[in-house]
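Why do we bother with holo predictions? Because pocket geometry can differ from the apo form. Keep that in mind while you read this record for zinc ion.
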Amino acid sequence: MKKGLLGKWLIAGAALATIVTFILVFVTPLKPIERTLEASRWVGRAIVAVLTFGVPVWVLLLAVFLLSVLIWVLARVLARAGDDEEPRFEQYTKDRIFGVDWMWQQAQWGPSSVTALCPTCKNELEWSGHRFDCSYCRKGIRFEADVSFAASPSDVATKEIRRRVRSGEWKQRLSGEQGS
Ligand SMILES: [Zn+2]
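The structure, written out:
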């Protein structure tokens, strides 16, 4: 290979390495300085290898390409693993409680706007004194709780939500283990 052509390839390689470095800075979980240093070290080693052992430039470019693909894939996997963080209490805003689907807002002092929903059409249910009724799809839903001690079914549900939060059961509920 002619000197001038090799020079051009080296410049192209260095430019590619710089671009790859910039991409790595954004995608890898290392600190920016560590990333830049690590990437520069690799570029340096590669250039030395080309100059001393006459490694063909296409091998170098292929290596840089494969390495960046590998790092990109690893970064994606690590980023996804980072998403599996502890569930937040504020995310627990719906559950099946005593046979009825409920949704609410999680305020600092506890659940508020606790509302019973139709499992079929998601309409807000009406309490008829002994069961829930859906005015939209005309379905009757049994509430499997003793409401005689509470002011309303939503008070029963609110109390149960607070119990599930206190006992830590809400975490399993949030991850999709639905029961009654
Ligand atoms: Zn309905």
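The radius of gyration is 30 Å.
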